[in-house]
Amino acid sequence: MTRICCVTFALLMVAGPASAQSSVFLQREISRLAGAAPEDKADLIGDLVDNAIKVKLASDGKAANQDLLAFRRADVQSGSGSGASGTTSAVSSPFLPAIFGLAFENGGLTRTVTGSTVTLKISPAGLVCASRQDAAAVAQRDPDVCRTNWKRVGITAAFDTNRGEKSGTLENLETARRQFAELAVRVELLNRRQPRSFQHFVTKATTFTNSLALLAATNSVWDDAATAALIEMTGRGDWENLSSQQRVEQLTAKMDALIADLPDPPSSVKAEWLASLKAEQLADFNRTVVTVEYAYQQPDLQTTDLGTRPVIVPAGTRPPSLHTARVIVAKGIGARTVDFTFNLSGSWFAERRGGMTDHFRDLRSAFEMKFKMRDIRDYGAPTLSFAGLYVLLNQEPLGLGLTTFGGTPITERGHIYLFQTKLEFPTANNAVRIPISISASNRTELIKASDIRGQVGFSLNLDALFGEKK
Amino acid sequence: MKQTGIRTYEVKTADFPIAVVIRAKELDTNDAFASDVQVVKDAAVVEKIAVKLVDVPPLSKRYGIRKPSTSPKCDLTQTITGFFGQNAPDNASYVITITSDTGDEFKTTIRVPTVDPGIANLTFQYR
Question: Pick from A27, A212, A227: which is nearest to B5 by CB?
Answer without folding.
Answer: A227
